[in-house]
Target: Photosystem I assembly protein Ycf4
Amino acid sequence: MNQPAASLPAPINGHEIRVPLTMAFGVIGMGFIGLFFGGTIALAQLSGFSFGGPAGRYEFTSGAGLLALVLGSGGLLLIAAGIVLLLNRGGLVMGHDRLQYVVNRKKVITQIPYHNISRMEIAESDTGRFIGIDLANLADPNTFHPDAEGCKKYSNWHYKIELATPQMPLEHIYQYIVNQRNARRG
Model:
């Protein structure tokens, strides 16, 4: 449901699962690798470097220049994406009556009260396992999910939880939500 910016929900306290720092550093590391190889190929081509033994020599061609450009540009983009991940780390917060996805522990991106969950299950897709959640009422005043309908069209679920850690696997997240839903109903 779209709500005006003035009515954005406030972050809650609860069990928090944050995007691992290793993910951001991994993206940055891959960026530096791409930048390194792109730069190395570009320098080799510009300097006229060639290699090979008596059987033949290999010289860098214009195709190598294109490869260097792609690797270098891709590396820079990955470094930028990793920095954005570091600066905007998100996390799933599971409170006593709702769950939220919060960025930088300040901005609520999604809020789903447990009473507004009509269906939930652990499912699998091409990208891995997740918890799929369908909402009972998209117009619920305590629900904030700006693109619930778009998510439903794309993934067959209004919301997907893919963030899990060894300390809090999907099965534990699922059971926690079920327990909280049942406690509110009963």
Summary: Strands lie at 15-18, 50-51, 58-59, 90-94, 98-103, 107-113, 117-125, 128-135, 159-161. The first strand starts at residue 15 and ends at 18. Confidence is low (pLDDT under 50) at residues 1-6. The CA atoms of residues 114 and 182 lie 9 Å apart.
